[in-house]
Amino acid sequence: MGPGDDDSANPAIDRIRQEVNAAIFSTPPPLSQDDPLAASMHSLPARGCPDAYKKYSNTHMLGGERQTNYTELAECQRACLMSANCVGIDWNKESNRDNTDRCYFISPQSAVGFRSRMKNTCCDHYRRTLCNGKI
């Protein structure tokens, strides 16, 4: 198969696309209130597995849902970890932002149609990681 060939009828490529989409948009299980990661950290590591998040600097996703209750990055990250419907967050790091306008949850529903991250110096995107071999 060369450049420009239509791969839409290729079952192997279709299967890979389905696996990638399932891995990217599956929702990791929420952490319990008793989990030390959710309860005690001031700042969460974000280097990907085994960390709870992978950080994408100067990047955000459209469709995030603003969370006004979280004014610190670690608070926002912990809240996402405890939510069954949160696959990541966007953190607005602009200094002129009100503290209640920094945390945006990315859910599988809000990410539909906006599957790629967009470059933007306003924000950092933190994608939850699944460390079971899918991501």
TrEMBL record:
InterPro entries associated with the record: Pan_app
Entry-linked PROSITE patterns: PAN
Superkingdom to which the source organism belongs: Eukaryota
All copies of domain Apple, residue ranges: 49-131
UniProt name for this protein: Apple domain-containing protein
